[in-house]
Hints:
Elements: E1 14-16, E2 22-24, H1 26-42, H2 48-59, E3 63-69, E4 75-81, H3 85-97, E5 105-111, E6 115-122, E7 136-143, H4 149-187, H5 193-203, H6 208-215, H7 219-233, H8 238-248, H9 250-253
Antiparallel strand pairs: 1-2, 3-4, 3-7, 5-6, 6-7
Helix pairs in contact: 1-2, 1-4, 4-8, 5-7, 5-8, 6-7
Amino acid sequence: MVDVYTIGRRDARVALNEGGTPLVEPASVVLDMLCAAMHALTDGRPADRVVCEHLVRGLRADAGVTLALDPDGSVHVVCCYPETAQVFAIAEELAERILYAGEEQATVEHLDDLGHVASISIRPGDPDEPGRPGPGRVLAYVRSRAFAPGEKELLERAHQALVAFWPHSARTVRAHQAQDWVRTTVEDSHMTDRELQVLALLAEGLLATSIASRLRLSPRTVHKHLGNIYRKLGVHDRLVAVSLARLHGLVDAYPSSPTTPGRE
């Protein structure tokens, strides 16, 4: 549970014990990490690098690596911090070792050729296929000295928070990817002004005959425009075409008045 007095904090403070050794405040570090991750998602950026950087600092690690776990079992590097050739080499080695042990967990171990490694495994179920694992992550943090008890507590708290946060992050990233695909598809479609007028009226729920009447065109011409719209958007029915138009804001950008100049 997050300590009440840390809820309003945006900076991850590191206190000192009597011997002068830094002591991390797990709740503060995790809260700061989640706030930064949410800001990244709001801006349309993946949260992986933000989480990696915050935990490298919180754990006082020498390097941080985030690996993607694909549903087919493959593993690849998502990001590293800091972004140096040495850390990328560590990332490739960790990817080959496949640290993921088959369940969501936080672990600390010592590897002879790397040093002390703290890792978090996140593997939610596939929302489209219950019973099967969905895409996940392994977050690994490496340093030469052993992790202190307070840092192990931070690792466990971060693990609990990220297990809850990851499905939301994945959905948000997929939504942004879909919007980017829509934007690219529409921008590359090179539709004429008249086709965009027809699409706007289609989004209003009008049938081809009503669109023809509104634009003072023949039904045959409207069907020709509809065929061009579907082909350029790579879809096969009006519902998908309208969904694309609404996602991209096309239905508001182009007036449907028959007096608007258009290119047939």
